[in-house]
Amino acid sequence: xxxxxxxxxxxGLLLPLISSAALAQEQWLQYRTSTGVQQxxxxxxxxSLAVSYNKPAGxxxxxxxxxxxxxxQWRSPRVKGGxxxxxxxxxxxxxxxxxxxIDSNCDGSLADExxxxxxxxxxxxxxFGPVRIALAGxxxxxxxxxxxxxxxxxxxxxxEGMADSERMNLYAASSGWYEGSVTVNGKKWLCRVTDxxxxxxxxxxxxxxxxxxxxxxxRAAGDSSEKPNFETGYVGKYIELDGALYQLEVPRxxxxxxxxxxxxxxxxxxxxxxxxxxxxxxxxxxxxxxRVAKGEGKAPVGKYTLVQWQVERKDAGGASWQLTGGQSPxxxxxxxxxxxxxxxxxxxTATIQSAKNxxxxxxxxxxxxxxxxxxxxxxxxxxxxxPKLHVTNADKSYDQSFTFQxx
Length: 407
What we know:
By secondary structure, the chain is mainly beta. Among the domains are: 20-28 and 177-264, no CATH class; 45-174, no CATH class; 349-376 and 383-403, no CATH class. The chain is 6% helix and 47% strand. The chain contains 2 helices and 31 strands. Strands 20, 21, 23, 24, 25 and 29 form a 6-stranded antiparallel beta sheet that branches. The protein has a 5-stranded antiparallel beta sheet with strand order 2-12-13-14-15, with no helix packed on it. It has a 5-stranded antiparallel beta sheet with strand order 3-11-10-9-8, with no helix packed on it. A hairpin with a 6-residue loop joins strand 17 and strand 18.
């Protein structure tokens, strides 16, 4: 009996320690890929790769079927030398390039590679992938996938002596990501980590959204058939879940995540127009939807880009209007002990610009915020009727009204 009591007492002391330590442990995710990555991830970032007809020096090449293969390089910090060479080939003398070689084993040669056939082609484009490659990982090579889109513009010259030519643009996007169930503070979440900037790593941070990889979370549904509603966030030092702040760790391979209670983090205060209901900022600390209360908000000290703000209001008829500000071109520095004013919200500026081409005048109208950010106005979630333009001269001999068109 004495031995049993001693054992149970010992276990009882350990349980709180284990439960708090478990929160800071790595939680592993599963690798996934898809032919429909655009739909599965609600859009991906496509990198533009420079295309050349010059053969890369020192790179072994396969036997091409066409006389004029094209070459490009995909850059990644997970590749020795900084990038993988790509070659484009086609089965016929004319028509789209429909074969793609990539140095999938990262050995610096294309001679040992098999071509990937285009999944879709037309006269002016071709799609490839997902194409499998092996990237260096902490414990050896790991699988990654890339998708490619080739756009071809042909220029035909009718002037004698000028040769026809074609210009190619090759775009690449990561089509592999990590996803799985994680537990944070005793609650189950679905977590997804994506290589947003398309360089093969999953923990890139920065000041601008295009530089930063994504981490998305959703509450785990009781019914596994229910499609999760992922809320997209940004990889950084911190992440906010259920109103609590956690330190976030994501390795460059993206195969696991680690959440640790952040503790006492230096916070910066912001003064924001009371009409603004939501402010989203992004930086090396991560991304935050700042809660605005009585014109005040808080976020961890650091530099950020203002990504979005919103003002919502109902009119006399009950229609819901929303004014949304886009990304600001200038970064915001939130300093410790400071009180930073964010110049967002109303009023916004409507600008009219005109240009003349021959006898035709082209007039455009746009909305901009205090920081130069673009503005979108919606009513009940839809674009309202386009505004009208009234043009008249001094003696009213010309008096016409026109309606702008979206797009």
